[in-house]
Amino acid sequence: MQISEDSRVWIYQADRAFTGTEKEQIEKALKDFTSQWEAHGFQLSADAEVRYNRFIILMVDEAQAGATGCSIDKSVRMIKDFEQQFNVNLFDRLNIAFRRGDEILSLDRDRFELEIQSGRVTEDTIVFNNLVQTKKELDNNWETPFRNSWHARVFESILASGN
């Protein structure tokens, strides 16, 4: 599906990578969900994907019909169902994902801070900004160097102390 770069985006990050089977099951459920997703009786122009076996990304082109509280609640229920079904956490906003070579890792705040202190996470480390709001931001600013991210502001004192 072609979706506008202005489409609204929600990103749910798993605290571990999905297995191949889990990814297939989630993608099928996402396809079924987005093909029937409505807001106040209007079909939403929506798309979804699992990226890097770790991120569930939902998108709605609100130029046609906007997502509403009830329609968003339905998507959140689906994500919570995934949590139960696959024994994974998808709502921990303090779980930070980053790249190390070709691998994508995620750590809680304290362990991520230790990675910074040890120098294993540097200003050039690619982190994932799951706060992006649109597909355009997803395409351009989701994967970003640590120094350009909101993460750098949160861990500024640790970076300043010599990394």
Key structural traits:
two-stranded antiparallel ribbon; alpha+beta; single chain; 9 strands; globular; 3-stranded antiparallel β-sheet; 163 residues; 6 helices
What do these coordinates show?
- With 163 residues, the chain is of the alpha+beta class.
- It contains six helices and nine strands; from the N terminus they run E-H-E-E-E-E-H-E-E-H-E-H-E-H-H.
- The protein has helices at 20-36, 69-86, 109-118, 135-141, 150-154, 156-160; strands spanning 8-13, 38-39, 42-43, 45-51, 55-61, 96-100, 103-107, 126-128, 143-145.
- It has a three-stranded antiparallel beta sheet with strand order 1-5-4, covered by helices on one side. Strands 2-3 form a two-stranded antiparallel ribbon.
- Strand 2 and strand 3 (42-43) form a beta hairpin.
- The relative contact order is 0.17.
Quick recap:
The protein has 163 residues and is an alpha+beta fold.
Helix content: 25-40%
Span of the ends, CA to CA: 43 Å
Q: Tell me about the biggest sheet? A: 3 strands, antiparallel
Instruction: Tell me the overall shape.
Output: globular
What proportion strand? 15-25%
List strands and helices in order, with pairings.
Blueprint (H helix, E strand, L loop, with lengths): L7 E6 L6 H17 L1 E2 L2 E2 L1 E7 L3 E7 L7 H18 L9 E5 L2 E5 L1 H10 L7 E3 L6 H7 L1 E3 L4 H5 L1 H5 L3
Antiparallel strand pairs: 1-5, 2-3, 4-5, 6-7, 8-9
